[in-house]
Amino acid sequence: MVFAARNSVEVLPASFPEVGPAPRFFIEDGPTNGVYRPESDYAPHGMPIVRIDDFEDGRMKNIDRLRRAVVPPSVQTRYALTRDDVLINRVNSLSHIGKATLVPSLQEPTIFESNMMRVRCGPHLLPEFLNTVLCSNIARKHWLARAKPAVNQASINQRDVCELPIPIPPAEEQNEIIRILSVVEKQIDSLDHARAGQDQLKRSLLHDLLTGRVRVGEATKMDAS
Fold this sequence. Notes:
- By secondary structure, the chain is an alpha+beta fold.
- It has 2 domains: 3-168, Adenine-n6-DNA-methyltransferase TaqI, Chain A, domain 2 (Alpha-Beta Complex); 184-224.
- The protein has 7 helices and 12 strands.
- The chain has helices at residues 3-6, 73-78, 127-134, 137-146, 158-162, 171-211, 216-224, and strands at residues 27-33, 42-50, 55-56, 59-60, 68-69, 86-89, 91-92, 100-102, 111-112, 116-121, 148-150, 153-155.
- The chain has a 4-stranded antiparallel β-sheet with strand order 1-10-6-8.
- Strand 3 and strand 4 (59-60) form a beta hairpin.
- It is globular, with a radius of gyration of 22 Å.
């Protein structure tokens, strides 16, 4: 997921209705803070726990390699994640505060740590659309205005999340916006992949030219072909 593509949501018409200070109609559950576990609870035989380093730009990463923590059944139940939950980082450096992700399908029960909040959407707000808004400058500006500074970090709270102005177009338009952004993101990913291949070719050619493995005349012929 590419942040620049997500920023396209800024052009949503001002006529879309917005969530007010208490979005009960759109939010089914949450925001709910995660659970703190001391380092001594982390162990290979524990339950997977999502930490702030496990997502970026709206996308989970390393979902199969999450750290694990040993927790009692009550914690497993209270802080369980399900597909399409939305996680929002509540404590981080100012540059990363409020980053979010959509929870994908999980292979086993998973929980989330204390410096993030979990939100579950109601039927009129699609989770992927909420994630789109959270990764846009609409949310970014809101978090920066609300962030409470501390030593080397900042924080937002549940009230800040509830008071985030979220454009709410009809479900059909939410789906169409998601689809359009998905197409753009795939194009960007494809271009990034192609760029990575060209960069690798450049590094290899540079090495060969500087070590004499490929002569300048040969490189010129390669470029012409």
